[in-house]
User: Fold this.
Amino acid sequence: MPFVHVYYPKSQWEEKELREVSEEIHKSLMIYFNIPTEDYFQLFSPYVLGQFYYHSNYLLEHKAKRTDRMILVSITCAPGRTAEQKTGLYQAIADAFKEYLNIPIENIFITLNETHRENWSFGQGKAQMISIKEEKNNESSY
Assistant:
């Protein structure tokens, strides 16, 4: 159920390249967060260069520096993943941007926003994740 929002510098890449990164992010979520294949919701939003403000080396190791090609990946998902799952996901996403868009991993900024399942509707005005959770609880009570 993750929703991924990627902010990237405008006019830097072709749609095909962004699609490849999107697919790699999804594969990483399937591996590290064990999501189903069909759970694929992502939005890519370009930003104008000069409108993303950041410190060039805050918390980076080995005197690394960020460039003007910063990427922000914001993932909203349900709570419950371990620190190991999260760090594995972060590394896999950074590696995908490096491989497919030639972006240094220093330029990949990732946030994870956890929100409870009852705060999601996948359409039709329903809270589908509540129903799924209730079904699983009922099955385990037999």
